[in-house]
Design goal:
The chain is α+β, with helices and mostly antiparallel strands. It has helices at about 1-10, 25-35, 40-45, 50-60, 60-85, 115-125, 130, 150-165, and strands at about 90-100, 105-115. It has a two-stranded antiparallel sheet.
């Protein structure tokens, strides 16, 4: 209860008015994050500190949600681009050339970008983590043989089952 009273008094003290505009800031932040903007870039555009951006995200749910939606959309674009680079892709390049009379001629040319091994490895390790990660689990609870003779007996026993079965 005491904490609420202190907060109420703190808010009543006034201070500098906030630059946060709920009509503009969430949409602008979402659009910028969809194009790959990071928090420091948002801060530069809104002319505030990074700390203020994080404060706004904590205080204004619509701003937080807009930033998260934008970041998720950008991450999906990067993932698609990485997948394209991993499997190879074609690009149509349009080029304008002038002939002898000075007329502009547009030429289209398709260019192929072959698969990139590093992109494939990166994609597999990060998207299919369970199957392609570098770290492998080793089961330390497997039965160990006490002697080479015991190992040979187990091998003979196993191979005799294979021959019979």
């Amino acid at each position: 209860m005491e904490r609420r009273k202190r907060r109420a008094r703190k808010q009543d003290l006034g201070g500098r008015p906030t630059r946060y505009d709920p009509d503009i800031m969430p949409n602008a932040a979402r659009l910028m994050c969809q194009r790959g903007a990071i928090m420091s870039e948002l801060a530069n555009v809104f002319r505030v500190s990074r700390r203020t951006i994080h404060y706004w995200m904590n205080q204004h749910q619509e701003f937080h949600d807009a930033v998260q939606v934008g970041v998720a959309a950008f991450n999906a674009r990067v993932e698609r681009a990485l997948a394209e680079r991993a499997i190879g892709f074609f690009v149509t390049i349009k080029e304008e050339v002038r002939d002898e009379q000075g007329k502009v001629i547009q030429r289209e040319q398709r260019q192929y970008f072959p698969p990139d091994t590093r992109a494939i490895i990166f994609f597999l390790k990060n998207i299919m983590k369970d199957k392609y990660r570098d770290v492998h689990n080793v089961d330390g609870n497997q039965r160990r043989f006490k002697s080479p003779e015991e190992a040979m007996a187990t091998i003979r026993n196993f191979s005799s089952r294979e021959i019979r079965g």
